[in-house]
Here is the input.
Amino acid sequence: MPDWQLNSSTEVIVDASAERLWAALTDPADTERYFMRARVTVGDVGEAYRLARDDGWGVDGTVLAKEAPHRLRVSWGRRTPPGLDVPNCEIEYLIAPAADAPSRCRLTINEYVDGPMPPSLAQAGRTGWALMTRGLQAYLG
Here is the structure.
């Protein structure tokens, strides 16, 4: 069993209901609008999780937990340059009501790894999640 460690955590408030935010995270027509033009595929637990763009960029994983509309955890396999050793990665999306207004939600994205992450990739991941959540907020706002 891997020893998963929190590598990064991003938290934002989104002007949407939990159901709308869940749809934005799991519907390919939505993700293409804010997630680097990538279309998502989200199967049931044990099935595929994928993000794919027309230029070949993508993520291949497996749905590990799916509790609509509050929690989605997936394995996150990405292509890396030859010779670059990266740990396994899991991403967990958590949706909860915002404390200040019932019409808004708090989205937390946790990235877990099972080994050391090269510093350049760790920073790229943090930057990527910040960009993705800003795009999501603008899309749903």
